[in-house]
Amino acid sequence: MHNVQPLKDYKLVSLFLAVPVEKNDDGSFHDGISEALRNLIASGVVGDWQHGPEIPEVQTASLDPEEGEILNAVQDVQLLLWRKMDDTPDTDRRVLALSPAYEPNDPMRIRTLDSQFLRTTTDVMRWADIPEPATEEDTEDK
Questions:
Q1: How far apart are CA 95 and CA 92, in angstroms?
Q2: Do 89 and 66 share a structural domain?
Q3: Which of 2, 64, 92, 129 has its CA at 20 to 30 Å from residue 12's CA atom?
């Protein structure tokens, strides 16, 4: 189900949720979030959605959990958006290039390129900006 309107602009928003392991493992979380989002889609608050990747490590709450404690594990997670080649980047920067022509373990499959060369390659299917790592100053007040 989706409620995407023609020619309307949408912003993609990432969201991290701390879910008890047993709720995630038995599928009840996915069922519950699907139902909640179905209502938001019907009301027009959300246009469309999909489950994103999970952080594989399990976080354990302390004896006296504080708000945000579990989510502190995601401070250094950065979302990497793979873009199609018809959306080429500005010049004078480095990007990650994905070339499915190479085998999965080949170092040429995902490599860095100068953005000016990205336009001339024929084997690259998608590209992504190289994110700057978060610094301590970026995360001090969060």
A1: 10
A2: no
A3: 92
